[in-house]
Amino acid sequence: MRSAVIVFPGSNCDRDLATALELVTGRKPDMVWHRETELADGIDFIGVPGGFSYGDYLRSGAMAARSPIMRAVSSAAGRGVPVIGICNGFQVLTEAGLLPGALMRNAALKFVCREVPLRVENSQSLFTANYDAGEEVAFPVAHHDGNYQADETTLDRLEGDGRVAFRYLDEVNGSARRIAGILNDAGNVLGLMPHPERVVEPAHGRTDGRRLFEGLLERVAA
Amino acid sequence: MKARVFITLKNGVLDPQGKAIHHALEGLGFSGVNDVRAGKLIELDLADGTAASEIEDMCRKLLANTVIENFRIERLEDA
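C-alpha cells for the assembled complex are given below, as produced in the milestone run.
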C-alpha cells in the first residue's frame, strides 16, 4: 500500500501517523506539504493528520481545508481512494466538505487529553473491517474542538446508513449522539477525533488502533 | 471601501463560550442577563467597487462555516 500523509504548518501528529503506517504497511508514506498541488501517481491511501494547522485560525481546519493540496485530496477521494482524517484531520475534512457536520468547541470548554472507550458501530467499512460490530476499544483523544454537530436530518441519515463508525461510550466533548467518527456516503472517507495511530505498538500500552490500519491494508491490497 | 462581516452561530447551535460568559457575568452580580451568544467580527479593506456578491462569496467559501454559522455583511462605503 502506497500512502501519503499531508503536512500543514502546525500539524503535529504527521510523524506519529507516518510511523504507524510504516509499521503496518512496511513502506514509508510520502510526506506531502500543503503547498503541493498534486499527489504522486499510485497513492492508494491518504492520511490527514492531527495537530493545530494554521494555529486553528478562523476555525479549526478552516485554513488547511482551502490549501492547494486539498484539491488533489478531494479529487482522489472522489475517485474512491481511502482517506482518513484524524483529530485536526477530521476538522479539515468537514471544513473541506468531504464529510458532513462540524467540530465545535468542547461543550465543557476544556481541552480533553486522555484515553477514551469507544464502540465500533460499523465493522463493515474499509477502515473497521478488522473489528467486530459493537466491539469496545480505547483510543486516546487530545482536542479542544471535538464536539461533533450536524442538523438532526444529517444525524439521522448518518445513523440510518451505518455511517457512524465510532461512538464514545462516555460523555467526552458534547458531541451529538456521542459520535466520535463518521464515514462519507461512499464509505472511503473516515474522520474521527480519537487517535488510532497512537495505539499501535505494545509500548503504547495498547494496540487497539493497529487493526484499523491492518484492516485497511488488507482491503486496499485485495 | 471597507466592509464588516458579523459571524454568529445559528439558532439552536450550542454556544459553550457564550454560556461560560453568561455564567461569568452572573458571577459578577449581573442578574438580568437572559442569554449570551459569542460571535466574530471580521473587517475587510476592499478595492473600491467590490461587488456585494463577491463579499458574500468570501463569506460562503471561507469566512463563515454555513453548517453552523450565519453571516451578515455591513458595507462602509466611505470609511
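Chain A touches chain B at residues 58-59, 62, 66, 94-95, 100-102, 104-109, 147, 149-150, 174 (CB under 8 Å). Residues 144 and 181 of chain A are 16 Å apart (CA to CA). Further analysis is deferred to the final report.
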